[in-house]
Design a protein that fits this description.
Blueprint: H1 2-11, H2 14-37, H3 58-87, H4 90-95, H5 101-134, H6 151-178, H7 181-196, E1 198-199, E2 202-203, H8 210-227
Antiparallel strand pairs: 1-2
Helix pairs in contact: 1-5, 2-3, 2-5, 3-5, 3-6, 3-7, 5-6, 6-7, 6-8
Amino acid sequence: MLKLIRLEWKKNNIGKYIRNVILLAAVLCLFIYALAYLGIANDPDTGVPDAAPGNNGISSSIELFTSMSFLVFTSVMLASFIVSAYKEKTMDLMFSYPVKRQKILISQMASVWIFNFVSLVITKLLLYGCVMFGSYTMESSFLIDFDMGSLNFYLQLLAKSVVIVTMSFIALFIGLALKSLKAAVVSSFLLIFLTQANVGDFTMADNAVFPLVLTFLSLFFAFLSVRRAERKDLM
């Protein structure tokens, strides 16, 4: 399996994705720093952040923007690795290998999942670290509501990263079902609205049970994506 994962990274030129993640992390870091210390979100009349109810802490903004960015990024990678392979008929060659189709698909999904999980964790640590070091010399517009010296901080960071990256399997399933790269990407945006948007004071982002349910649902869709791989025809 590890050989197949490394083969997927090599075949799909993982270097360009590493470059894109570095650029994405840099942009997010600059944006969050400006949000916290340069007052770009402050109301010009009151001088206080114009944030949604319950989002007065900087961690809410970090989680929101990293979640949105990497949910789309992961969905795009899955579409590129898998859906496009079907559409361009390169999957024909891969399925001619003396390896089960399901194992090939799982390796493709795992290669994207591992890459984006590690990238998301590193990006979040970069953003939190940037805000923390900035707080030593400047006053933040948002409440610094995290403690990087706490074990619970890292456990939550890892758990939330697992949920976000795994959620992209729903977008993959839709993309495969509709035989469309665009459908997979559009689905990722719809998932963002479902999980991150506020309706008044209500949001799914702070629901304790919803992430667990969503993770199991995402794994179920991942299972559906590979269940009939041995029998179904190629696109």
